[in-house]
């Protein structure tokens, strides 16, 4: 059997940074069960859109817990913006959502990752489920700063519009928003379909898919069914698989 | 020790000694993390090749691999995204069984594992020999699902789980270390969870 060509670096030489102290500059809760943190990171290494950061919390006895979160801000933003979905059984996300206040200090590490990264030049189709939009917000803001929003096509699926982070920003940028539990404009309630994605797809695009494991699986199958080659699809998944299968 | 985070006590006061630093117990879940679409590979089209710095480059089909001595792993697995899963049970064959046939040459020091998808990951040879690495096709007595790397994945449970390449198709023996896919994208060349070797430079 023949193998696909080797997967390489997504963006060669993507930046990476070590541990830094971040001061919380802003805390907002624009959608339920989540928090948007604006962080002033000392000696920050500029990121590329799509990269992520690790946040580490330390208890008085030295116990630590750390998790990764996507960056929503563009590299040129003087602050680093992370968007965190609050998981009821989450040890880190509950602290970030419920306890953190402006002026707090947090240990952060980043940027990290070189695969799920947009280079600012390649046409891209961005397909997100729910809070999977966060790295795409960074890509969109970067494209706006570069004056190249023409390079991006965005499709988002969410249960209800009010649960969608950055909904206004995404819709203003022309993102297609599919709501699965309520109609969205003239679009009836329902998941993303091939008919939604066909008008957004152009040869030469890299497709980025971000969301839960089940969303990412369904979305990549949809893209492959449209004829998008597997090697042009980059996936970032979060959350459980739905059991040990 | 870093400065404590204001207001953070941590939830788990009785820390399981099986948990490496910075990890949490994911319980019954088994998160799926991939960078690419999940391929559907029929077992009859799958094969495993051992090549590179070996005296006897060899390819085994599904049926041939299943005739090698069965070997089982019972224990824990650790993902760099900070979940660990206890008491897993994987069934397959030991990588030692393949290397006994292929016979690495004296200068072979590293392995590049390649998947059907083109995913790669690099490992020191010493980490896949001596009963520390497997090719597995069953999890808890059931066929390994495509999402988890089925029909066959590499299993190197003493290293972070990205080293356990899904949809494994080739092990190439090398004289020098070369970065694989995640390793080119910022992750550590060895990935020992007990040393928190998560990223390059750790």
UniProtKB/TrEMBL annotation, chain B:
Per UniProt, residues of the Oxidoreductase molybdopterin-binding domain are 37-182
Name of the molecule in the record: Sulfite oxidase-like oxidoreductase
- State the organism named in the record: Blastococcus saxobsidens
The annotated region (Disordered) lies at 1-29
- One Pfam family here: Oxidored_molyb
């Amino acid at each position: 059997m023949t193998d696909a060509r080797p997967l390489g670096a997504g963006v060669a030489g993507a930046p990476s940074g070590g541990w830094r102290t971040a001061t919380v500059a802003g805390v907002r809760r624009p959608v339920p069960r989540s928090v948007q943190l604006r962080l002033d990171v000392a000696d920050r290494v500029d990121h590329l859109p799509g990269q992520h950061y690790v946040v580490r919390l330390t208890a008085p006895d030295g116990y630590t817990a750390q998790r990764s979160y996507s960056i929503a801000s563009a590299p040129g933003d003087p602050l680093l913006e992370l968007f965190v979905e609050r998981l009821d059984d989450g040890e880190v996300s509950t602290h970030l959502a419920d306890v953190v206040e402006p002026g707090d200090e947090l240990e952060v590490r980043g940027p990290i990752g070189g695969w799920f990264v947009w280079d600012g030049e390649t046409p891209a189709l961005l397909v997100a489920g729910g809070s999977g939009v966060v790295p795409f917000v960074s890509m969109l803001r970067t494209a706006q700063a570069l004056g190249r929003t023409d390079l991006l096509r965005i499709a988002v699926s969410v249960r209800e519009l009010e649960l969608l982070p950055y909904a206004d920003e995404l819709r203003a940028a022309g993102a297609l928003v599919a709501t699965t539990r309520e109609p969205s404009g003239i679009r009836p309630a329902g998941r993303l379909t091939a008919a939604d994605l066909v008008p957004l797809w152009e040869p030469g695009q890299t497709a980025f898919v971000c969301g839960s494991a089940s969303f990412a699986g369904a979305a990549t199958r949809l893209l492959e069914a449209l004829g998008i080659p597997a090697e042009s699809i980059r996936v970032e998944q979060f959350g459980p698989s739905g059991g040990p299968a | 020790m870093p400065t404590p985070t204001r207001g953070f006590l941590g939830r788990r006061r009785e820390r399981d000694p099986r948990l490496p630093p910075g990890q949490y117990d994911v319980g019954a879940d088994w998160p799926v993390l991939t960078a690419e679409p999940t391929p559907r590979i029929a077992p009859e089209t799958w094969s495993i090749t051992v090549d590179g710095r070996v005296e006897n480059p060899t390819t085994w089909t599904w049926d041939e691999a299943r005739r090698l001595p069965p070997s089982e792993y019972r224990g824990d697995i650790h993902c760099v995204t900070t979940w660990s899963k206890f008491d897993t049970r994987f069934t397959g064959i030991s990588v030692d069984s393949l290397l006994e046939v292929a016979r690495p040459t004296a200068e072979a020091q590293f392995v590049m594992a390649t998947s059907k998808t083109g995913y790669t990951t690099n490992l020191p040879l010493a980490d896949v020999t001596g009963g520390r690495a497997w090719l597995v096709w069953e999890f808890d007595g059931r066929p390994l699902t495509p999402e988890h790397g089925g029909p066959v994945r590499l299993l190197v449970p003493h290293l972070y789980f990205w080293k356990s390449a899904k949809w494994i198709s080739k092990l190439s023996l090398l004289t020098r270390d070369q970065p694989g896919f995640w390793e080119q994208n910022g992750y550590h060349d060895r990935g020992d969870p007990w040393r928190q070797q998560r990223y390059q430079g750790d």
